[in-house]
Structure formats: C-alpha cells, structure tokens
Amino acid sequence: MSADELSYPTYLHLDRLLELQQPKSVPEHPDELLFIVVHQASELWFKVLLHEFDQLIAQLEQDDVQAAVFTMQRINSLVGLVAHELRALDTLPPQRFKQFRGYLGSSSGSQSAQFRAIEATSGLRESHFMAALQEHGEIPAVVQRALARPTLQALFLEMLARRGVTLEALYTEPQHGLLLMLAEAFLEYEQGFAQWRFLHVQLVERIIGPMTGGTGGTLGAKYLNKTIQQRFFPELWAVRARLYAG
Ligand code: HEM
C-alpha cells in the first residue's frame, strides 16, 4: 500500500485489532469485554516495554548514559500506566467475575511470556522465579532470549567499573550527574514494578478474596504477595543502607 493510500484505520490495522476481543461467556457477560481489553492492552504495553529494554541494553553497552536515562524515563512512564490500568478492573465485583470466570478455563496471567521476559530482562534469576518459568512447559523463546542476557544490574555495574566509579562514590561525589540519574531511574523502575505487583494483588484480593487459589494453580494472593519482595537491583538497595549508616 502506498503512503497516500494509508489512512488512520489502515495504518493501525484497526479492522484486525478490533476483531481480537472475543468474549467466551454465553450469553456474553457485559463485564468480559473490559476484562479482555485490560489484559490485551497490558500485553501491548509489555511488547513496547521489551522493545524499549532492547534499546536500553544497547545504550548501556555503548556507554550512552544520556540515552539510557531517557529510555528509563520512558520505561518508568509505561510501567506507571500499565499499573494504573489495573484500576479499571477494581470496578468488577466478585459475584460478577464468578459469572464468567469458568469460561476462562485454565488461562492465568502467570502464562504471560512477555511478563516473564520483562522480569528476566530486568534481572530475576532466583530459584523461585526459575521454577515459575518451568511450570508451563518449555520456556518461551522471548524469555530464553532475556535469560541469555546480563541483568540490568550487571550491565550498570559494568558501566560503573569501566569508569572506575564505585557505587558509594556515585552517590557521594558531585560529578556523576547523569550516571546518578540513571541509578535513580533504575530504583524508580523497581518501585514502579513493585507497585504493579501490589495493585495487582490488591485487585486479586478485591475480586476473588485473599484466600482463593488462582486459575494458574497457585495460592492466589498469598503467592502474589511474596513476589512483591523480589528485587531487580539488590546492590542499589544495599548501598543505601551503607550510605545511611555513614
Ligand atoms: C480480575 C482480575 C484479575 C484476577 C482475579 C487475577 C488473578 C491472578 C492470580 C490469582 C494470579 C496468580 C497465578 C494463578 O494462580 O493464576 C495472577 C497472576 C498474574 N496475573 Fe492476574 N489477575 C487479574 C488481572 C490481571 C491483569 C489485568 C493482568 C495484566 C496483564 C494480570 C497479569 C498477571 C500476571 C503477569 C501474573 C503472574 C504474576 C507473577 O507470577 O508474579 N492479571 N493473577
């Protein structure tokens, strides 16, 4: 299609995009469309996030700190909106969710390959996480690719080492401007991601209660609450305790 034939609907493939919301409930439950759209929109944002992380990793490897700061600002803004989006489902009362939950079969957010790829890209490697990855059969290619790369923390620490800057010096010497901004942006990302986890677990408790198991076979909110403690940048948190202790 030539550029003059392109229009808003053809450029965005709106005919295909708007075909993809297909409620399973019969008769169709009036709340299922919202449920599908919040999930699909989140997956689209996960796609953009993974794309931005590719840019970020290249920028870190090329020592382009300024570009990395900008990319992290974009990533943080996206994480904020994907978290906020969950709030739309706060309006779904438990008994109404129950009316269509049976139609979802064994679908569960824990099967989201892109979410796992974001966690893996960000730096999760611990045994609990690795076990969760194996639960749904073979690890998807997008996750394997992320696992094969160094963690963000490792890339950042290598960048500091190349410049001969220690983590303590980064925070205490005045000349590290952009590098310090990048470290703070990583911490903000960690906080933003934990806020997604927290809003999600609150949503889960609000809709299915704190003790109901998930469709993915977990203990539901009990399992999800534990994930809030996970850290992508343990070193950036540890250094703060050392700075505080003085
Ligand atoms: C009615 C709203 C929702 C309920 C009741 C719900 C419930 C749950 C439960 C119980 C789990 C634990 C795994 C399991 O056993 O299934 C889970 C995991 C998950 N859900 Fe949701 N969820 C909801 C909305 C969402 C939305 C909108 C997203 C956006 C993509 C999402 C993404 C995820 C992800 C990524 C996980 C895996 C989290 C992890 O393992 O750390 N969920 N969900």
Structure description:
This protein is mainly alpha-helical. It has one domain: Methane Monooxygenase Hydroxylase, Chain G, domain 1, CATH 1.20.58.480. Helices cover 65% and strands 0% of the residues. It has 13 helices and no strands. It has helices spanning 8-11, 14-17, 32-61, 65-85, 94-101, 113-122, 127-134, 141-147, 152-162, 167-172, 177-208, 221-227, 234-245. α3 (32-61) packs parallel to α6 (113-122) and α11 (177-208) runs antiparallel to α12 (221-227). The mean pLDDT is 94. Bound molecules: protoporphyrin IX containing FE. Protoporphyrin IX containing FE binds at residues 38-39, 42, 86, 89, 92, 97, 108-110, 112, 115, 132, 200, 203-204, 207-208, 214-218, 220, 223-224, 227.
Provide a short characterization of the protein structure:
The protein contains 13 helices and no strands.
Sheet with the most strands, sense and barrel status? none
The number of strands is 0
Structural classification = mainly alpha
Strand content: under 5%
- Level-1 CATH class name: Mainly Alpha
List the ions, cofactors and other small molecules found in this model.
Answer: protoporphyrin IX containing FE
> Mean pLDDT, as a whole number?
94
> What would the principal axes of the Cα set say about the shape?
globular
Please identify, by name, the CATH architecture.
Up-down Bundle
Span of the ends, CA to CA? 64 Å
